[in-house]
Amino acid sequence: MDSFEKECKNVERLLFDIAMYLFDYRIELMNDLLGNVFEKRVPRRQPLDPNFKTLTEMATRESAQAESERRNQPEDVKTQSMMKT
User: Fold this and answer.
1) How many domains does the chain have?
2) Quick count: other Cβ atoms within 10 Å of Cβ 80?
């Protein structure tokens, strides 16, 4: 795979993450602004794949930075760090 295709895959993944975080944000806004009016709450998204995080899981700057660094590591380093946990 050439570098252009790799970069396209990276951009695609990042855009997917942003779309899902915006979806999560919309749910949080609906619950905060309308939850008391309708006395119901929209359930938060629960990704089936643990590699995908929700906005509430990524809400702190520290966890967001750590996740970004983890995602930017080479595959062999990711595998090793996942085995440690």
Assistant:
1) 1
2) 11
Query: Mind listing the pLDDT tens digit for each residue in 59-77?
Result: 777 877 887 888 887 765 5
CA distance 72 to 79: 13
d(CA 12, CA 24): 18
What's the predicted TM-score (pTM) here? 0.60
Q: Which domain holds residue 68?
A: 3-84
**Would you tell me how many other CB atoms lie within 10 Å of the CB of residue 51?**
8
- H-helix or E-strand spanning residue 62: helix 61-71
* Nearest residue to 31 (alpha-carbon basis) of 15, 42, 46: 42
